[in-house]
Amino acid sequence: MNIQIFGRAKCFDTRKAERWFKERGIRFQSVDLMRKGLSRGEYESVRRAVGSLRALIDERSKEYERLFIAHLAYEADIEQKLLENPGLYRTPIVRNGRQATVGFAPDVWKTWE
């Protein structure tokens, strides 16, 4: 397994995901989403895996309101805002190669073992 956990330092679910993998002795790479963001390639891979642009967006974030995401009509505009503002992502984003989840999803991660 090649696990990457994209998250925020103060995110409870991100810390919970890291603890879940540690408890099982599964090595992972932790990526600070607020500092690094997702590259376009990483974003596209995660989006294909989760199937929906909306699944990636944290509608409770301050960025969501500030950037008026709910009022954008075109997916391309929303994608651009998402790539420019990592605070919009719902976390954690956990990748294992071409597989990915958004949020705390141990039932899915168990199938990766």
UniProtKB/TrEMBL annotation:
It holds the Pfam family ArsC. InterPro entries: Arsenate_reductase-like, Thioredoxin-like_sf. PANTHER family: ARSENATE REDUCTASE, PROTEIN YFFB. Belongs to the ArsC family. This is ArsC family transcriptional regulator. The lineage of its organism: Bacteria, Bacillati, Bacillota, Clostridia, Eubacteriales.
